[in-house]
Amino acid sequence: MAGSADEPVSSSGSTPAVVLVEPQLAENIGMVARAMLNCGLDDLRLVRPRADWPNEKAVAAASGADRVLEQARLYPSTAAATADLNLLFATTARSRAMTKWTLTPRAAASEIRRATAAGIGVGLLFGKEARGLGNDDVALSQAIIAIPLNPTFSSLNLAMAVLIVGYEWRMAANAVEAAAVATATVPGAVLQLPKETAPATAEQLQGLFEQLESELDRCGFLRIAEKRPIMVRNLRNLFGRAGLSAQEVRTLRGIISCLVAGPRRPRGGGGGA
């Protein structure tokens, strides 16, 4: 009922992937599957679920959405679950000390529709029931989806949150609705799709982050241990907002390598005396 996650499964690009990070109850996973299939979504990815998997309680709660559960994939980390995706949206109700584009589900839906129509892999991140997503998971995303509910009571269960985002994605398929939604987005927000090269995947961005952080550790820039996690998240947010293409990531990694290697003699060399 669950596939192997030894190798990343490439997203078809036709629908966004729903990524549940450390879901706590099997019943909630089943209800998420039910909500997804109602909206035409079937790419479910589970990061370290607490319940054993496969799980009969999830099947019962899915009320017939067995196909989603049968195709669900297990992953050891959020980075592994999103490695093949290009554009990630983190869903959160809490304010974060991060500079991120923040959209309503309706505004995000038009961006997701444009991306998936172009064959770009999109992921929707949902956190555990008790506390939501951790800051490190939010830092992997390019934008935040925040559902504008009653500020004095904004408690949703996991399946309700998935259903709201999935419903808006489904409604955005209507051309008139999509056009109206597009006018509400921040100009230039959440990545205009590049024409010449594809956006970087999460795996490519992770490689850039790891190379940069390794060199910053080596030179002592991240030497203050208690400040390091915040500094790393800030750097990741900076590059995440940039909407880098795969080619731009390769260029940045080449620049880092060149700077580390130090100056070289120009080709064709000038001669000595």
List keywords for this structure.
273 residues, alpha/beta, globular, 11 helices, tRNA (cytidine(32)-2'-O)-methyltransferase activity, SpoU_MeTrfase, Helicase, Ruva Protein, domain 3, Alpha/beta knot, RNA_MeTrfase_TrmJ/LasT, S-adenosyl-L-methionine
Please characterize this protein's 3D structure.
One of its GO terms (cellular component) is cytosol. InterPro entries: Alpha/beta_knot_MTases, RNA_MeTrfase_TrmJ/LasT, SpoU_MeTrfase, tRNA_m1G_MTases_N. One of its GO terms (molecular function) is RNA binding. Belongs to the class IV-like SAM-binding methyltransferase superfamily. RNA methyltransferase TrmH family. The chain has 273 residues and is of the alpha/beta class. It has two domains: 17-182, SPOUT methyltransferase, trefoil knot domain (Alpha/beta knot); 202-261, Helicase, Ruva Protein, domain 3 (Orthogonal Bundle), CATH 1.10.8. It is 43% helix and 10% strand. The chain is built from eleven helices and seven strands. It has a seven-stranded parallel beta sheet. α9 packs parallel to α11 (246-261).
